[in-house]
Amino acid sequence: MLQRLLSDNFIPTADAGVGALAVSGLSVAYHQRLVLRDVTWTAPAQGLVAVVGPNGAGKSTFLKAVLGLVPSLTGTIEVYGRPLKRQRALIGYVPQRESVDWDFPVSALDVVTMGRYGLIGWGRRIGAKHKQAAMQALDRVGMADFAHRQIGQLSGGQQQRVFLARALAQEARLYFMDEPLAGVDAATEQTILAVLRELDAEGRTVICVHHDLQTVAETFDHVLMLSGGLVAAGPVREALTEENLRRAYGQRASGLLLGPR
Amino acid sequence: MDMVGHNTLVVLLGATALGLAAGMVGCFMVLRRRALVSDALSHATLPGIVAAFLTGMALGVEGRSLPLLLTGAAISGAIAVMTIQAIKRWTRLTEDAAIGAVLSVFFGAGVVLLSVVQELPAANAAGLKGFIFGQTAAMRTGEAVGLGALALLAASMVWLFFKEFRLLAFDEGFARAAGWPTGRIDLALMALVTLVTVVGLQTVGLVLIIALLITPAATARFWTDDLARMLVIAGTVGAVSGGVGALLSSRFADLPAGAIIVLVATTLFFISLVVAPSRGLLGRSLRRARLRRALLAGELAP
């Protein structure tokens, strides 16, 4: 089934005039509380996108609702001009590191191979070709030497790189990443950023939830600022203004961008 | 071999196949933290068994028809699991509260129904009690063969969909984002647990089948950090427990098979807890002692 989806929906280039991702009228509620109200946004044709906003602003929720992992009240999601449901094969995902049990009995290579499962298909064994692709993905994030290590024995930064490698193994066109740079060491940060820029240069779309406002400008090209709804979106220079920050973060915003640097 | 009759041999092989399947399926229950769901499932089979017995009597079918009883068991067990899911989904109760409520209500209903059956003049409810603690002695050859085949079916399904189950158990969110029908994979897994539970009812009994699902998996986890190996070890521990338990219970007529099977599995668990090299207590304290010596000798840099 997944293979059929793949062949039907593969879109060779992103310049067909339709955005990689178009979100319209997305609203999400947890129990009785509205978390996101009426978000309409189209991903830019090029450049890394940071989803920013204060804690509890609905950044992760936005990502999960777009992916259909949490139910949304209203809204439609289109990926390259078609409903997301039919375009899953084009999507790569890096969840938050805390979302899984790192004591799980699998190796780094096992986890990265999971990115190939969609290409392998139901009930089939994992062939040498796919293992090789997974190894290449691990190599790309500098983790080839740790391929056979159980994931619990890796450092936080290494675990994050394994998650990124799994997404690379998916060979997706549109990537969603939930805090890929949270709590990682400097070397890992450099590796991840280099990979993100490569993905962008290859014409893939990368949308990252990012919590550190001070590094947004140097790392990302666009921002999507959320706080219970859309506050601002656009190129970093235009959207990441003091005024928008005040609207998203309240009075705490003063000095958020200046910081100790 | 002349000490073991043909029927006993078949029952023994059936119990071995049951242990194999329970050990393998149980790995995913342990890793998905679903151990208690399977406990609720097995306890909830009791009202189904008794209701099926009553239905059989009313329809004039022979009361202790195993396929009928096990169908009833599977139906009420499945209803219990669905009730737990529904409570979790539609209320703000947590899973453990839902499990506690469902398990006790279903088991209580079963006990009440059972006492009703015992009041009936024509009914012989003695056979039904065997399902609570397990009783291999009464098992017929044909039944044992059928149950063994079902257990092997469950084991081979786990092997066939190993990749999908592993993905679901490790990272459900990623699986859903990538387009896998996680709901259906989860349903398949629960169906396999139900199958193993129902197959094990007569051998191990509904009170103890949880131990055969969980103990081999927990035992295997001590020995390996690789899920495929964990399945092999858990299947082996389960199979050995099933086989040895059924054998001992056939040699000493008063010993209930279920209890022996569980005791064998638990013995293997405790041995592993102590001596398993990487995760066992002994290995761990040896490594710490070595580390401490190295530290004191100044050979250890931070």
Number of strands of chain A: 10
With strands numbered from the N-terminus, the spatial order across the biggest sheet of chain A is 6-7-8-3-9-10
- From the alpha carbons, calculate the radius of gyration of chain B and give it in angstroms: 21 Å
Q: How many structural domains are formed by the residues of chain B?
A: 1
User: What fraction strand of chain B?
Assistant: under 5%
Distance between the termini of chain B: 61 Å
| Largest sheet: number of strands, sense, barrel closure of chain B | none
**CATH class wording of chain A:** Alpha Beta
Oligomer: heterodimer
Look at the structure and name the CATH superfamily of chain A: P-loop containing nucleotide triphosphate hydrolases
CATH T-level fold name of chain B:
ABC transporter involved in vitamin B12 uptake, BtuC
What is the class of chain B in the CATH system?
Mainly Alpha
Strand content of chain A: 15-25%
Unreliable spans of chain A: 1-15
**End-to-end span of chain A in angstroms?**
52 Å
The ordered H/E elements of chain B are HHHHHHHHHHHHHH
Instruction: Provide the gyration radius of chain A in Å.
Output: 18 Å
What does this structure look like?
The complex is a heterodimer of chains A (261) and B (302). Chain A is globular and about 50 Å long. Mean pLDDT of chain A is 89; it is low at 1-15. Chain A has a single domain (2-253), classed as Rossmann fold (3-Layer(aba) Sandwich). Helix content of chain A is 34%, strand content 22%. The longest helix of chain A is centred in the C-terminal third of the chain and has 16 residues, at 186-201. Chain A is of the alpha/beta class and 261 residues long. Chain A contains ten helices and ten strands. With 302 residues, chain B is mainly alpha-helical.
